[in-house]
Write a structure and sequence with these properties.
Blueprint lengths: L1 H17 L6 E4 L2 E2 L13 E2 L2 E4 L5 H8 L18 H14 L6 E8 L17 E5 L11 H8 L16 H4 L17 H6 L25 E7 L3 H6 L10 E4 L16 E3 L8 E2 L3 E3 L1
Parallel strand pairs: 7-10
Antiparallel strand pairs: 1-4, 2-3, 4-11, 5-6, 7-8, 8-9
């Protein structure tokens, strides 16, 4: 009887441990959107549970997996930047392999993605065009979908319907052009003034977290999402997202951008090969 009880206790403990989020990840309980400022509010979109990184991928995280540091502003606890969407996808698979997980993405570097179309105004900006497909059975790292990102940034089921991730005052929760340098800037956005003020990325986790304990989902660096910049509902309900496009979604705004770009509902996009000193990402895993 004691052996049976001991075995049952061990199974219970193993099950409890396996239900815990990985280090520096938060379990986001699924459901419909509660944040009234969300693009998906009252759109009858339901998300399943998933894990998401508490912080942006840092330069320390990146170097451990990739070996080199592409960032303009160097520091182990700073978010990695100057990374394209393809770089982020590559990182996810490499980190998964290093940790003994099944990669979430199938990457074909030789076949040009037929769904990657030229920009109608500026032509074909993406000179890489890997064909990347999702492997839903993989338990490895991945980028959040746009819907998942917005749901988590907006507080999930604990949402208080804040405009920004964690509050209604950008300065409390976000690094953006006014507060990310030597002095607090006023007046109008003016790039020479931003440069002179030494605006830059900031160490992760220094601002207030949101309702789920997630940091920097507003400001610091813009964060890549999986989706093409397409129809919102299609992105949220179709397993592969919108059927092609010419740019991928980024969310959250960055240190050089305006406060309105850091609102959780704001949608931005960039060609998948695009990079910048304010372009980073965070990762997810399936539950």
């Amino acid at each position: 009887m004691r052996k049976q009880l001991a075995a049952a206790a061990i199974l219970f403990l193993v099950g409890a441990c396996s239900a815990q989020p990985p280090d520096n990840f938060v379990l986001v309980k699924g459901g419909t959107f509660k944040n009234r400022t969300s693009n998906y509010y009252e759109k009858n979109i339901f998300l399943s549970d998933f894990y998401i990184g508490k912080y942006d991928v840092t330069q320390e995280d990146w170097v451990e997996v990739m070996g080199t540091n592409p960032s303009r502003f160097k520091g182990g606890d700073l978010p990695v930047e100057m990374v394209s969407w393809y770089d982020a996808i590559d990182y996810c698979n490499r980190r998964s392999i290093e940790e003994g997980l099944q990669p979430y993405y199938k990457i074909d570097r030789k076949t040009k993605d037929p769904d990657n179309r030229p920009n109608p105004r500026f032509g074909d900006l993406d000179d890489i065009k890997w064909t990347v497909l999702r492997n839903p059975g993989g338990d490895g790292y991945r980028l959040p979908t746009e819907a998942e990102w917005e749901y988590a940034a907006g507080g999930g089921q604990s949402s208080r319907s804040y405009i920004y991730s964690g509050g209604n005052l950008a300065d409390e929760v976000a690094w953006y052009w006014r507060n990310s340098g030597d002095n607090y800037l006023t007046g109008y956005w003016y790039w020479p003034e931003i440069v002179e003020n030494h605006d830059r990325t900031m160490p992760v986790g220094r601002k207030k977290p949101n309702e789920l304990g997630l940091y920097d989902m507003s400001g610091n660096v813009r964060e890549w999402c999986w989706d093409w910049y397409g129809d919102l509902k299609t992105n949220a309900t179709n397993p592969q997202g919108s059927p092609g496009g010419f740019s991928r979604v980024w969310k959250g705004g960055g240190w050089m951008g305006a406060d309105f770009c850091t609102a959780t509902a704001y949608r931005g996009s960039l060609a998948a090969n695009g990079k910048g000193p304010d372009q980073g990402f965070r990762v997810c895993r399936n539950k």
